[in-house]
Design the sequence.
């Protein structure tokens, strides 16, 4: 999923993508790679005529009156198309001026930046000094300086705006790793400057956000290129997409892309209010998107193999752009500021604009919260279980069968009141599968004790020889009177040493294709035939386990779903696991404040 998630934003993204494809933006970038002098792309006038350079600026100053959420949608598409030209530095400059300058300064500079007749460049480093309204000193690496009319550079805690054509401005453009959009070394010598006091952090925030949006586009295109190639490249008689190593590369790229996407989306929504929250979210966006693009462009070359290392293939164009972005912005600095702001107590506000029907739901939720917020421990948890608020999205009577809007309202009201829902982790997604597939008797025996946290469940799927092949089950179940005898081994079982029950895949028919001979069973982890051996991790802790079964009896009434038809149940369990982990219920996530001790212990890492 791209940054564009609303209908209007998707339409905007489609328009941008279609325009850039028709104008052959990537082909123009390649022409610059082949040694051509950097000039404005021939479609620049058409691009700015669409209003994109002023998308985020007020209408009274020549803009379109939208905001950063709309701008980053376009910037992502520019990144995907590897668009040359000064769009990104121009909109960074105008966004910073719009957020920090006095009305007269905005009126002076923004109309030209909004309509694209004035092109901006941005310098985030250097050591420029201001004396009597004049700027002097090295501005460091300045993105887009060669084609710029206006330079916006940091000066300690302030911003200096200078005319790029002033005689006191020296611009040196050495050979760039990304000649499709160059950066230059800029030095100022007693140059007339418009100074915006205290604007440096805001300039950095907008640069982080907008560059992160472009990096997200690079992530997405590199991931698409790799996945599409893997589907058609044949090696050893099979398309390479069937090989686990290639799958893992593509999956890691997809994860990096989605992390970058969500972080940019969050930061763009906070940009309008500015302040420390925007600084935090912009830092997170840059800290995820820049390393993410580096990962994706490198893995893209790996998936393509030899052809990815040729001049003719476009893979290295994306690697060049990604590397150039990282020379402009330091992801490590972004992550360090994330820690600093978190330490200072800055937090992201999770607020989503909900449809009108949310308010009709809210009063009921507020009434429940008011009733339970004074309760403690088990009493509060049991009240949530009884009313379905422990797991609102679960079907009734165990949950509330809550749709997306009700779930969001519940999250908002619980968070505002400081009421925390119980965390079930692995138990949760196993119990949900039981609700979906178990008999009434099984549900009655197992679900409520789990919701009341009287028992813990583990998931007995992985085996030593199977790797990620969940259907590669060798643990054997042999039919006996009244049930099954289970023998075999599971491994990497989280929490087995703490669990009362395990949800296990067993092989009940070895004579049929592997997916057809699997049965789902519930195993009593306290059975004398069950041996749990903790696996010691590098930390010294033991959270994973080996589990051995030696003639463990499983009665027929503990088989879930049809005999030999357990693969469907197993897949549902894996699906519930993915949803739970993705929504933060898996127990593997952490807040940014959890990083502070590690950062303090190893600040250089």
Sequence:
């Amino acid at each position: 999923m791209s940054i564009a998630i609303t209908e209007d934003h998707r339409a905007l993204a489609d328009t941008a993508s279609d325009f850039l494809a028709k104008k052959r933006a990537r082909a123009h970038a390649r022409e610059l790679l082949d040694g051509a002098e950097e000039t404005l792309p021939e479609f620049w006038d058409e691009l700015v005529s669409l209003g994109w350079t002023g998308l985020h600026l007020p209408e009274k100053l020549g803009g379109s009156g939208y905001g950063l959420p709309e701008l980053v949608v376009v910037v992502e598409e520019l990144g995907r198309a590897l668009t040359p030209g000064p769009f990104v530095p121009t909109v960074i400059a105008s966004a910073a001026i719009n957020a920090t300058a006095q009305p007269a300064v905005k009126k002076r500079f923004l109309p030209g930046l909004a309509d694209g007749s004035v092109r901006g460049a941005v310098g985030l480093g250097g050591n420029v000094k201001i004396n009597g309204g004049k700027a002097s000193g090295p501005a460091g690496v300045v993105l887009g300086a060669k084609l710029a009319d206006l330079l916006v550079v940091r000066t300690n805690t302030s911003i200096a705006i200078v005319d790029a054509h002033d005689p006191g401005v020296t611009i040196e453009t050495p050979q760039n790793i990304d000649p499709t959009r160059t950066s230059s070394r800029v030095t100022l010598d007693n140059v007339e400057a418009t100074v915006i006091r205290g604007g440096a952090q805001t300039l950095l925030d907008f640069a982080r956000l907008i560059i992160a949006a472009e990096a997200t586009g690079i992530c997405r295109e590199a991931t698409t290129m790799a996945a599409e190639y893997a589907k058609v490249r044949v090696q050893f008689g099979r398309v390479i997409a069937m090989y686990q190593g290639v799958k893992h590369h593509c999956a890691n790229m997809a994860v990096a892309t989605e992390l970058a996407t969500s972080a940019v989306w969050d930061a763009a929504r906070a940009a309008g209010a500015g302040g420390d929250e925007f600084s935090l979210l912009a830092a997170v966006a840059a800290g995820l998107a820049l390393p993410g693009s580096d990962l994706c462009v490198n893995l893209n070359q790996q998936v393509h193999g030899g052809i990815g290392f040729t001049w003719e293939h476009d893979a290295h164009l994306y690697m060049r752009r990604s590397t150039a972005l990282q020379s402009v912005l330091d992801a490590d600095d972004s992550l360090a500021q994330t820690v600093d702001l978190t330490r200072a107590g800055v937090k992201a506000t999770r607020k989503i604009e909900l449809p009108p029907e949310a308010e009709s739901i809210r009063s009921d939720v507020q009434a429940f919260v008011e009733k339970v917020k004074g309760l403690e421990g088990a009493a509060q948890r049991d009240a949530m279980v009884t009313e379905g608020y422990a797991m609102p999205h679960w079907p009734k009577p165990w949950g509330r069968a809550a749709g997306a809007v009700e779930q969001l309202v519940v999250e908002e009201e619980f968070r505002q009141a400081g009421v925390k829902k119980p965390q079930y982790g692995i138990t949760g997604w196993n119990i949900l599968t039981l609700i979906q597939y178990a008999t009434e008797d099984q549900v009655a025996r197992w679900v409520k004790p789990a919701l009341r946290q009287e028992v813990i469940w583990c998931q007995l799927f992985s085996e030593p020889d199977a790797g990620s092949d969940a259907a590669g089950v060798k643990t054997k179940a042999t039919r006996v009177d009244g049930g099954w005898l289970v023998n075999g081994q599971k491994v990497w079982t989280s929490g087995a040493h703490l669990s009362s029950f395990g949800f296990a895949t067993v092989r009940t028919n070895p004579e049929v294709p592997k997916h057809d001979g699997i049965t789902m069973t519930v195993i009593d982890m306290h059975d004398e035939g069950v041996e749990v051996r903790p696996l010691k991790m590098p930390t010294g802790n033991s959270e994973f386990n080996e589990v051995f079964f030696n003639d463990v009896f499983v009665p027929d009434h503990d088989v879930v779903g049809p005999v030999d038809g357990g693969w469907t149940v197993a897949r549902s369990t894996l699906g519930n696991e993915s949803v739970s982990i993705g929504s933060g219920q898996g127990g593997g996530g952490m807040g940014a404040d959890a990083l502070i001790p590690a950062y303090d212990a190893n600040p250089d890492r």
